[in-house]
Design a protein that fits this description.
By secondary structure, the protein is an all-alpha fold. It has a domain at about 15-130. It has nine helices and no strands. The protein has helices at about 10-35, 50-60, 65-90, 95-110, 115-120, 125-130, 145, 160-165, 175-180. Helix 2 (about 50-60) runs antiparallel to helix 3 (about 65-90) and helix 4 (about 95-110) packs across helix 6. The chain starts with 11 loop residues before the first helix and ends with a helix.
Length: about 180
């Protein structure tokens, strides 16, 4: 008989960290799924009136339609009735958004998710702001870019030191044959 391996036990801190990770994942997943399910569709928006109008047209043409056309019309009627019923239900994302705001920053930090990734999946900027997830610093808005591309002058360095740093030292790289002839 082989000796039994010692059974390892999880510390309370480890259990707490696992539970927190599950809570973060659930809050983020639920909110993103709700956003995805209620994202506006491309193309022309249907209104309840346009759906009712189409349903009336289907009812009129059912009597004279062939068997296969009737089957397609009945399916279309079923789809339109489901869509109309879905329009009546208002989805309240506030609870999901509140949980997302509470957990998104920790989840994103743990998983290394960038601001732009959150925006790409449809999370509104104001929700990210509430969650404490901010845009990274924009390199185009650096002091050098703000001054029209000029480097900022370091007042602690002397004018001679600044001019020395602008001179280029001879390159130790071999010159190309065409450069050697011309220069």
């Amino acid at each position: 008989m082989s000796p039994r391996a010692k059974k390892s036990t999880m510390t309370d801190a480890h259990k707490k960290a696992l539970a927190e990770g599950r809570a973060q994942s659930k809050a983020v997943r639920d909110y993103l799924e709700a956003l995805d399910a209620h994202r506006p569709k491309r193309g022309r928006k249907r209104t309840p009136d346009s759906i009712k109008k189409r349903l009336a047209a289907i009812e009129e043409s059912l009597d004279t339609a062939s068997v296969t056309t009737r089957l397609n019309l009945i399916q279309e009627r079923h789809d339109l009735l489901s869509e109309l019923a879905g329009m009546q239900v208002k989805v309240d994302l506030t609870g999901l958004e509140k949980a997302f705001v509470k957990h998104a920053k920790g989840y994103g930090a743990r998983k290394g998710i960038a601001y732009s990734s959150w925006r790409s999946v449809g999370v509104p900027a104001e929700v990210l702001k509430k969650a404490g997830i901010t845009r990274p610093a924009d390199p185009d808005r650096s002091p050098a870019a703000a001054s029209g591309g000029q480097r900022a002058v370091d007042p602690t360095r002397s004018a001679a030191a600044r001019s020395d740093s602008r001179r280029t030292a001879p390159s130790s790289e071999p010159r190309i044959a065409s450069e050697a002839r011309s220069g």
